[in-house]
Structures are given as C-alpha cells and as structure tokens.
Amino acid sequence: MRFLKNPEISDYNDYGTITLIGNALETKKKYAIKTLTKLEADLMKSFSDLYQQRTPLSKNFIERSKRVMPGGISHNVHYFPPYPFFIKAAKGSKIWDVDGNEYIDLWMGHYTHILGHHPQVIIDAIEQQVKEGFHWGIVFEKQVEWAELIQQLVPSAEMVRFCCSGTEATMYAVRLARAYTGKKIILKIAGGWHGPNPDLSVGIKMPYEREESLGLFPELIQYTKTIPFNDIQETLQTIHQNRLDLAGIILEPVVGEGGFFPPAKDYLTMLRSETARLGALLIFDEVISGFRVALGGAQERFGMIPDLTTLGKVAGGGFPVGVLVGKREILERTSPERKGKKWEKILIGGGTFSSHPFSASAGLAMLHYLCDYEDEVYPLLESRGVKIRKDLQEVFDKEGVNAVVTGIGSLFQTHFPFERSVALDSPNAINQRTDIEKREVEFRLRMLNHGVHVMHGGGGLSISHSDEDIKKIIEAAREVAREMAQT
Ligand SMILES: Cc1ncc(COP(=O)(O)O)c(C=O)c1O
User: Fold this and answer.
1) CB atoms within 10 A of CB 342
2) How far apart (Å, rounded) are the C-alpha atoms in residues 332 and 368?
3) Ligand 1: does its nearest atom lie under 6 Å from the Cβ of 458?
C-alpha cells in the first residue's frame, strides 16, 4: 500500500487556471441555438474549406466508412464535422494522417499515452508477450504482478479486479455500492461522464433532467441523480434528500468532461465525511486521473481515500483495460469462493478478455516505468502543464479572444465563454456558459490547420512533448487566436 503524500486539496486559484474577470455573470444563453450571420458562415467555411483541402483522402475514407458504420465511427468522440481525419502513423508526440499531414498530438490515444505514442518500453513488453502467448482465458502470473503493483501504488487499492474498459469498471462500481450497502441511490456529478453504461447514463449533457438516450429505463433517474461539482451547499442538500437510500457517490476528483477542474477546498472532504456518516460508498472514477495527476492518482494528490476507485487508460499501457479497486472488505464480497445463493452474492467479473495478456504486460511495463522514473515524470508533466496553460491564456488575452484555459497537471482544455466575466469551476458552468461548438469545431479545425491536434480545446501532455513542441503549440494558438479575433 502506497502512503499518501502531499495532501493538496486546493481552491481553484491555486492552480492559476481559472480566470475571473470581474463578477460572475449569469448567462441567459443556457439553451441558446446559435444562428450564424453570413459573415460568420463565410469565415466558418474558410477554415473548414482549408481543412478539407488538406484532407481529401480522409474524406474518401469517411465516405467509405459511413457506408458500413453509423457516422463512420465506433466512439462518438471520434467524430467531428465536417469529418475526422484518418490516422496513418504515430510516434512520440506526433501523428500523421493518411494525407501526409503532421500534427503534434494532444489527445494521445484518449489520454492513454503518458509516455508518448509507441514508447519502446511498451513495444518490448508486447514483443515479449507475443512470444509467450496472447490469450488463454486462464489465470497467469503477470496478472498477479500487475494487480500487486496497482495495490502498491493506488492508496485505496486494498484489492483489485480487472475488466476490459472504464465503462465496465464504473458499471461494476455502482453495482457493488448498491449490493454492499443494500441501498439504491447513486449520486453523480451533473455533466460527468463514466462511460455509457445504463446506470450512469444520466445527467451527462444538458438539459440534465432529460433522458440521455432512447432505450434507457425511465426509472433510471429515480435511482441515479446528479449533484453539482464544487457546490457544497447544493450537494449537501441533495445528499440530505436521499440520505435514507443512498448507496454511493461517484465522481471524477478531477472532472474530465468540462475543464479538468480540481475539486474546491472542502468539497471532497464533505463528500468523504457525508458518505461515511450515512453508510454509503465514495467512488472515485480515476479512469483519466489515475497514474496521471500523480503516480497514485488524484486520491494521492488530494490526500483523500475513497472506498472504491475505477481505473483505465494509463493502467493498460495503451491496451484495453478497466480496473475496479477498493477496500478489501468490500471487494472480498465479490469472490466466487463465497458461499450462498446467487441472489445473496455479488456478480462482478465477466469479460472474455478481462486482464488480457497484452494489457497485463503493457500495463505492467507502463506502471513499472512510471514507478522507476516517478521523480522525473511527474515534475516534468506538472511544469509543462503549468507552462502551456499560462502561455495559452496569455496568447488569448493578448490577442483579445475571450477564452479561458483550465486544467491540472498535464491536463488542460480551452473554453470560449459567451460573456466576459464568468467563473468556470464545473462541467455545469462550461455547458451553460461557454460556446462548446466554437471549441469543438472552429478551434479544433483551426488548430489542425496549424498542425496541432486538440480535443476539447486541449488534451493531455506526455513526457514526449518537448519544449519545442510546446512552443509550436503556443505559436499555432497565437495564429488561431489572431484569426478568431478577426471574426
Ligand atoms: C472518467 C471516465 N470514466 C469512464 C470512462 C469510460 O472508459 P472506457 O472508454 O475505457 O470505457 C471514461 C472514458 O473516457 C472516462 O473518461
């Protein structure tokens, strides 16, 4: 078990990432539908046209792809208009598309490649694994080593269970919370994303009170409810209203879908003490923040131990993974050795490819590397993250573009508020007060035209992003800010 170090729950301004220009204004543009002026439409056309001129082969691929896959993609986040570029190769901080365009990548395999694309240490592990075998559906030693290392690194990981994705891990986490406590209600952050499993497909996009999709049981919202991130009073009120049947609270301690906001001072402390007081479980979804904002994840960084934690992404070294970890007493309840009728036991543990040998060997190699070089990796990611947020903010301020750069550690995003004076401290604030389309379409395409691949206006830095790369990203953003300022 790894000890917590540097407990560091902070208020946002400690991170220097939230810009408050005067008093916060309530925006009236909550659900405003944007109609483009002719000038805006022409300008939109020009950067979209340039993107299309640079990516004709990708256009052919997407047309072919759409004939066989809805929208041409297999994860909605892979799609953006007019169409996504198709990748051909990747190495370190760079990717190349099928048309030969080079980009500095900030998406990094959906926040997975903390060492950059195709690091040698992972290639070696996989080459070795190919020789040893690649799927047995039988337990093997590396799986145990991988679990032991996670147990050693993640403060809450007294026991470990592997699955194939973060979605599965969060699905199991809420099932376990309900089964262990014998209660039904799960609270999640409004705007929070934990994968598309039905239990947590509530309150992701605005308006939160509407169902996220056809095909979900309407009763779902009776048992999975939302709380506003960083709002202690409102959250306390919802906890109080649901106190008699509260099974657990799940949240990303650093919220990905909207800003990578760190928790406000006392927010996590309040959640920890309220769940403990009511006999409910506190679940941290560290699928993104695990092994990234610190070796032991956000729980180590903020000095707060949840009952259960879900992990993914970095944990698998670039291969499919989900991990559910937590208190021994709770996870033991899922053991197949337990006696009893099936309805007295907890079913956690399917997945033909759970703990696949490639994921185990790549994950083990990744975690060993991060462990061995912890003192170099995390300070480097931290300092580059601080620099990129600061420099980007300066560029937007200087060029007169109303943008706010948020984030923590190596993670960052850029937002375009409708008004000048807004406080951005939650997914709620981002969804209500910023122009998401401007970020997802205009800023993304303009940055791509300048050779930088951003996601949600930013991404996750890796140790392969050099000072030179950061400089190029800032220069690209400067050009883009100038273009945007002209509009
Ligand atoms: C915080 C969080 N939880 C869960 C998931 C789902 O993980 P996966 O895509 O591996 O199913 C994601 C995916 O991006 C995530 O960001």
Assistant:
1) 7
2) 26
3) no
Is the minimum distance from the CB of 167 to ligand 1 under 6 angstroms? Answer: yes
- pLDDT score of 33 more than 80: no
> How much distance in Å is there from the Cα of 288 to the middle of ligand 1?
7
Give, in degrees to the nearest 5, the angle at Cα 456 between 191 and 287. 60
Asked if residue 194 has its Cβ within 6 Å of ligand 1, the reply is: yes
Q: Give the three-state DSSP class for 38.
A: helix
As a residue count, the chain comes to: 487
Which atom of ligand 1 sits closest to the CA of residue 170? 4
pLDDT score recorded for residue 4: 53
Mutate to test the pocket of ligand 1, among 77, 107, 167, 283 (most ligand atoms within 8 A of CB): 167
Does any ligand 1 atom lie closer than 6 A to the CB of residue 170? yes
User: What is the rounded CA–CA span in Å between residue 349 and residue 371?
Assistant: 28
- Residue 40 pLDDT exceeds 70: no
DSSP string, 394-454: HHHHHHT---EEEEETTEEEEE-BSSSS----SHHHHHHHB-HHIIIIIIHHHHHHTTEE-
* Three-state secondary-structure class, residue 246: strand
Atom of ligand 1 nearest to the CA of 289: 1
3 state SS of 185: strand
- Nearest CA, atom 3, ligand 1: 194
What is the C-alpha to C-alpha distance for residues 122 and 114, in angstroms, rounded to an integer? 12
Evaluate whether 286 touches 309 at the Cβ level (below 8 Å). yes
126-133 long-range Cβ contacts below 8 angstroms, 24+ apart: 126/358, 126/361, 126/362, 128/361, 129/357, 129/358, 129/361, 129/362, 132/357, 133/357
Question: Is 256's C-beta closer than 6 angstroms to any atom of ligand 1?
Answer: yes
C-alpha radius of gyration, the chain, whole number:
22
Expressed in percent and rounded to 5, the helix, strand and coil fractions of the chain are 45, 15, 40
Q: pLDDT tens across 153-205, in order?
A: 999 999 999 999 999 999 999 999 999 999 999 999 999 999 999 999 999 99
Q: Is the CB of 297 inside a 6 Å radius of any atom of ligand 1? A: no
Q: Does the beta carbon of 299 sit less than 6 angstroms from any atom of ligand 1? A: no
The dihedral region occupied by 311, where left means phi > 0, alpha psi between -120 and 50, and beta the remainder, is beta
Provide the pLDDT confidence category of residue 19 given band limits of 50, 70 and 90.
Answer: very low
pLDDT reading at 31 higher than 50: no
For ligand 1, atom 8, name the residue with the nearest CA. Answer: 166
Structural domains for the chain: 12-111+382-486 (3.90.1150.10), 120-372 (3.40.640.10)
C-beta of residue 409 within 8 angstroms of C-beta of residue 17: no
As given in the structure block, the two tokens for residue 113 are: 């490649």
Neighbours of 122 (CB within 10 A): 23
Helix orientation angle between 357-372 and 141-153, rounded to the nearest 10 degrees: 40
Strands 185-189 and 224-227: parallel
Taking the C-alpha atoms of residue 299 and residue 296, their distance in angstroms, rounded to an integer, is 7
